[in-house]
């Protein structure tokens, strides 16, 4: 419930601070005094859009702040989901800067307008003339019936199962579409896979073949130069090996005469061994060079096969071709086994639907059982509201298929007079009658569910006399189980409020301001007397006002 409302620099309100209580609160004031401004301020902290014109002083910031006691609304999961700090006394603040930029905060954490609206609709229900159309909405009618039937938990369970069923239907459709696309491409994909599979791809093969090709293409030149190098090293008498051998022998003979000679001998001996190894390697390489034209042709052919595959698949390596082969293999496997997936999904869909249908049957039974009592409860209140012949049939029918609200079709009908056939509520009730039907429904709901703070904006339009007294009594009774605020111009309703605020205008320093004050008991008597008889407060009017308060 709303415990405190602070308004600074909003429209004609320079500053106002309202402390609100549980129960039924009335707000009165002359036409044009600014009661709608109060609703506008409430709208801002519940997520309505704003602009810079909201501020009274365009050079200063406009601030609206409300404190809500939310402990009874089970909102912990909402706060967690929105990553907000939960507090039993939750503070909502809206700021509008001179630039027109708007900021919103929940418990001092910045939030988006969507987050603010999502919380606001759970905390405040502002009921104006256009809001009466809610009662014509089929989803709202289901909510009313399910609340009265104590079936909200069952409805939530159904919604989860219905959503699961619909999701699986979408998944099945996606698999079937994938199968259809895959079947159209299956032959080509299969050809691509076979082509790559038969190529016997080996990681790094292309690079290795390129090296072999260079060798094979220049085999004679390589052999010739290897032979020349070997000859220069190992030629008898003139070769390097013979000369190194003679030099090594010479140094061997003096190596014992000093360390410096020994070092020279060791070095030339190392060179001799290295050159000897090099000679052997030249010989081996020369013998391994294959100048066979057939081998050259096979290597060329293999390179061309790999190159064509890489060009075809627009890749740069054999490893990428291998990855494509594996992907194609997996996709072909999925296509070949998609019927198994479809069969499995169809079983899951059938099970999910059967479970949803079981719950839908339970919902239908609860609703059918509750309808007579709901109808009687609403009609009883409508009689008190001056509609003695009001008739509100509620019909529930079975649908062939599951729907978001179960397997039921629901319709609220209405007839205001005897001898008239009941028609759908939107066609059978006038605007004033719809307002009374909505009030009756809200009154019934308040006995079965903790409703958000309910604000009625002149719901008493077109009402007077004894009906107004009855309406006031109904609002007062609703205030026993919820916080209810009514902006009213009827003294019969104003007298029923547990708390009373007055909205009025003053002219200060050539500037008009709207102010809101809580009235004491004596002030209420004067205000209600003025509502009864105008500014001339006769003793009869004052006495009548006291009677209304009592």
Automatic annotation (TrEMBL):
Keyword set, alphabetical order: ATP-binding, Coiled coil, DNA damage, DNA repair, Nucleotide-binding
Keyword DNA damage tagged: yes
Record flagged with keyword Membrane: no
Signal peptide: none
Coiled coil: 199-239, 328-362
Domain RecF/RecN/SMC N-terminal: 2-509
Lineage top rank: taxon: Bacteria
InterPro entries: DNA_recomb/repair_RecN, P-loop_NTPase, RecF/RecN/SMC_N
Family from the record: Belongs to the RecN family.
NCBIfam families cross-referenced by the UniProt entry: recN (TIGR00634)
Role of this protein: May be involved in recombinational repair of damaged DNA.
UniProt protein name: DNA repair protein RecN
Gene transcribed to yield this protein: recN
């Amino acid at each position: 419930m709303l415990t405190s409302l602070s308004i600074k620099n909003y429209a004609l309100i320079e500053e106002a601070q309202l402390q609100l209580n549980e129960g039924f609160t009335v707000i009165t004031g002359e036409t044009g005094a600014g009661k709608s401004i109060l609703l506008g301020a409430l709208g801002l902290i519940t997520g309505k859009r704003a602009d810079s014109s909201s501020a009274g002083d365009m050079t200063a910031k406009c601030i609206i702040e409300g404190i809500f006691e939310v402990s009874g609304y089970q909102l912990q999961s909402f706060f967690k989901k929105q990553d907000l700090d939960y507090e039993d006394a939750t503070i909502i603040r809206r700021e509008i800067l001179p630039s027109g930029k708007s900021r919103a905060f929940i418990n001092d954490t910045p939030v988006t307008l969507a987050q603010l609206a999502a919380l606001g609709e759970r905390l405040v229900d502002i009921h104006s003339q256009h809001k009466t159309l809610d009662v014509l909405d089929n989803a709202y009618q289901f909510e009313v019936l399910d609340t009265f039937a104590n079936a909200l938990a069952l409805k939530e369970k159904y919604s989860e199962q219905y959503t699961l069923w619909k999701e699986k239907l979408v998944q099945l459709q996606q698999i079937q579409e994938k199968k259809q696309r895959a079947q159209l491409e299956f032959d080509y994909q299969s050809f691509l896979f076979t082509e790559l599979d038969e190529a016997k791809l080996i990681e790094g093969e292309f690079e290795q073949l390129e090296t072999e090709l260079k060798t094979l293409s220049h085999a004679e030149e390589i052999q010739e130069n290897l032979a020349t190098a070997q000859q220069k090293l190992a030629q008898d008498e003139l070769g390097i090996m013979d000369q190194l051998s003679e030099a090594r022998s010479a140094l061997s003979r003096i190596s014992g005469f000093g360390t410096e000679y020994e070092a020279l001998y060791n070095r030339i001996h190392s060179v001799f061994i290295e050159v000897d190894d090099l000679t052997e390697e030249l010989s081996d390489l020369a013998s391994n060079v294959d100048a066979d034209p057939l081998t050259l042709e096979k290597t060329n052919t293999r390179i061309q096969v790999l190159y064509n595959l890489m060009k075809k698949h627009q890749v740069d390596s054999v490893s990428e071709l291998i990855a494509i082969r594996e992907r194609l293999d997996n996709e072909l496997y999925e296509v070949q086994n998609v019927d198994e997936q479809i069969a499995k999904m169809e079983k899951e869909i059938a099970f999910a639907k059967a479970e949803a249908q079981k719950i839908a049957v339970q919902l239908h039974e609860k609703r059918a059982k509750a309808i007579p009592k709901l109808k009687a409860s609403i009609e009883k209140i409508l009689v008190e509201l001056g509609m003695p012949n009001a008739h509100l049939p509620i019909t529930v029918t079975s649908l062939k298929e599951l729907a978001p609200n179960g397997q039921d079709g629901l319709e609220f009908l209405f007839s205001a007079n005897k001898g008239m056939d009941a028609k759908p509520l939107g066609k059978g009730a006038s605007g004033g009658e719809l307002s009374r039907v909505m009030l009756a429904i809200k009154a019934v709901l308040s006995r079965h569910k903790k409703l958000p703070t309910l604000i009625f904006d002149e719901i008493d339009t077109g009402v007077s006399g004894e009906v107004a007294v009855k309406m006031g009594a109904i609002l007062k009774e609703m205030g026993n189980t919820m916080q209810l605020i009514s902006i009213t111009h009827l003294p019969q309703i104003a007298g029923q409020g547990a708390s009373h605020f007055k909205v009025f205008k003053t002219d200060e320093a050539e500037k008009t301001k709207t102010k809101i004050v809580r009235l004491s008991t004596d002030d209420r008597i004067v205000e209600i007397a003025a509502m009864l008889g105008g500014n001339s407060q006769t003793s009869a009017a004052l006495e009548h006002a006291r009677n209304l308060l009592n």
